[in-house]
Amino acid sequence: MQELLMNAWNGWQRYINDGKYAALLMIVLLFLWFRGKEEKEKVLLIYTTLVAVMCIVPVSAAFLMGYQTRFYDYEWIWNYVPVTLMIAYGGTIFLGEYWERYKKSVWKCAGLLLAAVILIILCGGMGKKVFDGQTERQERVAAQEVLEQLLEDAGGQDICLWAPQEIMAAARAYDGSIQLIYGRNIWDAALGAYSYETYGETEENLYLWMCNAEETGTLTYTVEISEQLASEGVNRILLPGNIAAEELQQLTAALGMEAVQLGEYYLLRVD
Amino acid sequence: MAFVLWLLMALVPACLGKCVLHILYRNQPTQETSPADYWLTGGMIVIGLAEAAHLAGCILGRSFSGCVVLFGMALGVCLLASVVILLLEKKNQKKNPALQRKAEQERVRKAFSSGESDKGQWIFVMFGIIVIVQLITLATMQSVYLDGDMTLETVNSFLTTDAIYQVNPMTGKAYTLGMPLRLKILCLPTFYGILCKAFGMSAEQVVLGVIPAFVLLGSYLAYSTVAKKLFPENKSKRAIFMLAVALLYSVGDYMFGMDGFGVLHSGFRGVTIRAAILLPYTFGLMLRKKYKLVVLCILAEACIVWTLYGMGACVAVAVGMLLVQFAIQWYAKRQGGKEAGVCKNS
């Protein structure tokens, strides 16, 4: 319960940190409550107000988080609040009333609409991106090209692959026939909730080894590496292209394989 | 084939939904439902059929191809039944003068209502432009958020192994410890896989391209039903409402979990379908007192989102709105009773 309360407290801080839709919702609710006219949609207004308060107060927010299951974080309890609906509704009522008042002046009506649009934009993310979609797409496309060549090279043979992170991330999303020694869930903790499977020391060592190779361009061959690869049934290895030729030669000699250039990577085949 | 998929996804749910609404609301005036209701209701029926096919695969052990056939047959039968029922209804209307009069009145009402104020037309144009830009962005898969989600891998696993959840989607190897049953029974990956198999498209094209576009459109349909309830006689206000929703989506993608983020970057996820379609539709249905359709929303959510034994957001919203409604009615009766007492005394 304490953990839920802490999550509820921190979650609210996160929720209002980047964009201000919560503030816009509060403005709309205050406008609808105090505009001096009887509200036609009382049920919606009262419900939204009550549940919004429940989402803000940590104790009730923790209750809602418990109800939605621990699979979801704090921000998902705001699903119970019709944020988009109420902001759109309140904005429409406001514009509708003031347009009635200024209906003879087109400029005033257009100005009011523009002001409302600017307010929504200012309360949004202001262009701030949560993630770099363009770059991720480019990486995904580049990885898919490499995977296509890999599959062509394999000529229909089943593949068990060990490769740098961007290739491993794209592999099974591209083609379900490619097996991996570890998947995205080894670095994306959120995916861990989808199954009871865990990784052993072997997979974690291989993951860390590959991360080190990508970052530093150095390869440290140990006998354990080849034993671990053999135990996982790996038959295709992709190594980053920034590796020094000497180190690559040492590794391939120790593993008894040949390295072939495949795009920006080196391909090692285990037949 | 992509075009055929688009066409069928637009028409099939609408046909199914119209029939279901005709059965559920036989005695109510037709102007209380709209084409948006048909498509949304039909969409929920399609989810139900996908769930049945999925359960056949993951619990009864049918192959994935078998599930595709099962889904196809079930959908075909439902579609055929819908067409027959709707044709029979039309025939009955022609034979029954009272029904014919009602249909004629409906036609006249619609003809006159199109003469409402056209001030909202230019606002609808602005709304349309925003939607087109959003659709182009979605269809070209410009900005897709895949963190914390494995739908693509799961669909590909089903297609490759011709089985449901026999291998770990992350690695392609057999499960050793398995996965939570509550997650296993969710049908979206199977539904997407069925579309891939039936139309010969890749998982990426369906999951990242087609589905998010339909979720966006479905969301606007859901909000359009709400707009019609909130502003029944005023087209301009409905236009402003829809424009506001489109704008809120466009600039509201600043955080994972926001509605705008979901529809623009991860429309294929169950939580996005719930937040963008099922929940706004549930709010609208509760305001319109169409409780039978709310039950469909609750069931649809249970099929696509991890909920607490089926108790999800739609149930919470429905119960919350009902409680508030009863509280208001009770308060109004109490006030009415007090005023009657005061009048009597004076």
Description of the molecule:
The complex is a heterodimer of chains A (271) and B (346). Helix content of chain A is 59%, strand content 8%. Chain A is an alpha/beta fold and 271 residues long. Chain A has a 5-stranded mixed β-sheet, with helices on both faces. The longest helix of chain A is centred in the middle third of the chain and has 22 residues, at 133-154. With 346 residues, chain B is mainly α. Chain B is built from 14 helices and no strands. Chain B has helices spanning 2-24, 35-58, 64-95, 97-113, 121-139, 151-161, 181-184, 188-199, 203-230, 235-251, 259-265, 270-288, 291-304, 313-345. Chain B is globular. The model of chain B has no long low-confidence stretch (mean pLDDT 88). Chains A and B meet through helix 3, helix 5, helix 6, helix 7 and helix 8 of A and helix 6, helix 9, helix 10, helix 11 and helix 12 of B.
Largest sheet of chain B: none
**What's the average pLDDT of chain A?**
88
Structural class of chain A: alpha/beta
Number of helices of chain B: 14
Helix and strand string of chain B, N-terminal first? HHHHHHHHHHHHHH
Largest sheet of chain A: 5 strands, mixed
Biggest sheet strand line-up of chain A:
2-1-3-5-4
**Strand percentage of chain A:** 5-15%
Count of helical stretches of chain A: 11
Shape of chain B: globular
Q: Please provide the count of β strands of chain A.
A: 5
* Largest Cβ-defined interface: A-B, 74 and 84 residues
Question: Assembly state here?
Answer: heterodimer
Name the poorly predicted regions of chain B: none
Note the run of SSEs of chain A as H and E. Answer: HHHHHHHEHEHHEHEE
Structural class based on helices, strands and sheet pairing of chain B = mainly alpha
Q: List low-pLDDT spans of chain A.
A: none
